[in-house]
């Protein structure tokens, strides 16, 4: 039996996928990618992401979304956008495809981003996650310690630290706070020594798979003349992750699926109603 896969971070609303989403989703399903999480990145995008996911949900029953403001977009955002996100969250609580708050976080790599504005939007959205007891999808770039400090001040039911590239000690602290760590195409580069070390040394129960499509291309993408990343490439990426980990592909697939279900309870409830979205116990 073929393993089934989950892409826990994929921007299907990106311009690269415009006009060809049905084909992109069919290609993913053909590779047995049966669940994809689409995080919103701006307040204005929240209704669009929700509509997109629900439009294509009959094609891919495991298609789900989160709502939030990405730190990359905070310079264009208004503080009142947090209230708009909250209203979309309230309206989406009855939608089984809405599963959390994200993509939110801190980015200390991009110098043009005001750290004070970042703090405002991040903390305000963490407050929403705590208020509605929703997991969060975190953007963590050179900001691990600041994010950990903010999380410790709240009672948030875990989530996923997307594209994790911190230290082993920082990883263990995220895990201790109920988070899973996302790994994808970045680990396919031989020079990504720290990410590969984390893949080998972290508990298998802490790992989830992602593509961050259309971004974070795997090492082989450019050489094969492919323009951008997409969820259909996840199984090939995951094969390399499993090889780095030193375990069989099916064992890895089953583990990361269970991990995602554990940390995203609304997704788990959705999958429980679809026989094709369940793995053997």
Description:
Helices cover 40% and strands 16% of the residues. It has one domain (5-277): Metal-dependent hydrolases (TIM Barrel, Alpha-Beta Barrel). The chain contains 10 helices and 8 strands. The relative contact order is 0.16. The longest helix has 18 residues, at 115-132. The protein has 281 residues and is of the alpha/beta class. It has an 8-stranded parallel β-sheet, sandwiched between helices.
Give the distance, in angstroms, between the N- and C-terminal Cα atoms.
Answer: 14 Å
Number of domains: 1
The level of helicity is 25-40%
> What percentage of amino acids are in beta strands?
15-25%
Summed up, the helix count is: 10
CATH superfamily: Metal-dependent hydrolases
What would the CATH topology be?
Answer: TIM Barrel
In N-to-C order, the SSE pattern is: EHEHEHEHEHEHEHEHHH
**Strand order in the sheet with the most strands:** 1-2-3-4-5-6-7-8
Structural class: alpha/beta
Largest sheet: 8 strands, parallel
CATH class: Alpha Beta
| Poorly predicted spans | none
| DSSP strand count | 8
Quaternary assembly: single chain
Mean pLDDT: 96
CATH architectural designation? Alpha-Beta Barrel
Backbone shape = globular
Salient structural properties:
281 residues, alpha/beta, TIM Barrel, 8-stranded parallel β-sheet, 10 helices, globular
Question: What topology does this entry show?
Answer:
Blueprint: E1 5-7, H1 21-30, E2 33-39, H2 46-55, E3 62-67, H3 81-92, E4 98-107, H4 115-132, E5 136-141, H5 144-152, E6 159-162, H6 168-176, E7 179-183, H7 193-201, E8 207-209, H8 234-245, H9 249-263, H10 265-272
Parallel strand pairs: 1-2, 2-3, 3-4, 4-5, 5-6, 6-7, 7-8
């Amino acid at each position: 039996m073929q393993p089934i896969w989950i892409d826990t971070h994929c921007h299907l609303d990106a311009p690269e996928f415009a006009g060809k989403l049905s084909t992109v989703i069919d290609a993913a399903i053909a590779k047995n990618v049966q669940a994809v999480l689409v995080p919103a990145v701006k307040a204005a995008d929240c209704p669009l992401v929700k509509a997109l996911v629900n439009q294509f949900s009959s094609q891919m029953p495991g298609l789900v979304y989160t709502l939030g403001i990405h730190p990359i977009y905070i310079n264009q955002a208004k503080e009142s956008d947090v209230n708009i996100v909250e209203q979309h969250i309230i309206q989406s609580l009855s939608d089984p495809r809405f599963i959390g708050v994200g993509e939110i976080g801190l980015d200390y790599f991009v110098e043009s981003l005001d750290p004070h504005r970042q703090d405002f939007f991040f903390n305000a959205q963490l407050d929403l996650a705590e208020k509605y007891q929703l997991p969060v999808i975190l953007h963590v770039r050179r900001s691990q310690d600041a994010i950990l400090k903010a999380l410790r001040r709240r009672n948030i039911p875990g989530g996923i630290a997307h594209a994790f590239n911190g230290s082993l000690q920082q990883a263990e602290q995220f895990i201790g706070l109920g988070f899973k760590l996302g790994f994808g195409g970045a680990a396919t580069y031989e020079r990504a020594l720290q990410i590969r070390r984390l893949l080998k040394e972290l508990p298998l129960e802490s790992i989830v798979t992602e593509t961050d499509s259309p971004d974070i291309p795997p090492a082989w993408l450019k050489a094969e003349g492919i323009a951008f990343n997409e969820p259909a490439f996840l199984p090939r990426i995951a094969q390399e992750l499993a090889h780095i980990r030193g375990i069989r592909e099916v064992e890895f697939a089953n583990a990361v699926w269970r991990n995602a279900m554990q940390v995203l309870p609304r997704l788990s409830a959705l999958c429980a109603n679809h026989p094709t979205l369940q793995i053997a116990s």
